[in-house]
Design goal:
Length: about 90
């Protein structure tokens, strides 16, 4: 197997992926309301840790937490536990 065969195989697999009606899919089809204002400002679909670091950096002027930092995992776990079953509000609109 060479690089071209591998690239062809990966491309064929990726064409079979279907995520349904996810926000990012709607964004790719020019749905201007698919992403939140924060995600548009960020320029991508924001993960929970992106929103956490956004709050740490902007209002608090702190340094962001790394993905593997135990403090990041603790904050994520706390948010997930407190918001169990409640849609996450991604900031000011």
């Amino acid at each position: 197997m060479n690089f071209d065969d591998l690239a062809t195989a990966i491309a064929a697999f990726e064409r079979t992926l279907y995520s349904g009606n996810a926000r990012f899919d709607r964004f790719l089809t020019d749905d201007s309301k698919a992403l939140t204002a924060y995600q548009v400002q960020l320029g991508c679909v924001a993960l929970l840790r992106d929103m956490i670091n956004g709050c740490i950096e902007n209002p608090a002027r702190g340094r962001p937490l790394a993905d593997g930092d135990p403090r990041m995992r603790a904050v994520e776990a706390y948010i997930y536990a407190k918001r169990n079953g409640v849609k996450l509000d991604s900031g000011k609109k």
